[in-house]
Each structure stands twice: as structure tokens, then as C-alpha cells.
Amino acid sequence: AFAVTVSTVTRAVNSVAIDGTKVKLTLASAALKGEAVTVAYTKPALNPLKTADNLEVPSFTAKNVTNNVN
Fold it and tell me: Taking the CA of residue 25 as centre, how many other CA atoms within 13 Å lie in the half-sphere pointing to its CB?
């Protein structure tokens, strides 16, 4: 359901964890400090992400995300 790029190269997502309103993606290999990261989401037919109001999260195209690697 998630597509991640790190410095324009596709990076596999090994796991997804939900913590309240945050989604944590664990990548096959870590992003390094300063690398540009994007995340896209395609809503699956089964078990889509839901908001705090229990609404299904719609698909979205690649969005820049903050890389907090130190």
C-alpha cells in the first residue's frame, strides 16, 4: 500500500506500525541524513488506513516527508 523513494530510488517497506495518528514505516535499508524521502499510499481493498474518526484514508501520490535521521 505504501511506496517509498529515498533520493529518487524505490525503497522496499518491510513493516508498517500505527501509533495513534502516526504511521511508522520500516524500510529495507535506512535513509541516511540529508536524503530526500517521499511516501505515496494506495488504499487497498482490505484493511485500509483509517483516520481517528474511523474514515478510510484515500490514496495519495508521492509526498515529501521529513527525514529526521541524525
Answer: 22
Instruction: Give CA–CA dist 64/38, Å, rounded.
Output: 4
Strand partners, 64: 38
Give CA 52 to chain center in angstroms.
17
pLDDT greater at residue 68 or residue 64: 64
Residue at grid coordinates 508521492: 62
8-66 per-position pLDDT tens digit: 999 999 999 998 888 999 999 999 998 999 999 999 999 999 998 999 999 999 999 98
Largest CA distance in the chain: 36
Count Cβ neighbours within 10 Å for each residue of 5-23 and write b for 16 or more, e otherwise.
bbeeeebeeeeeeeeeeee
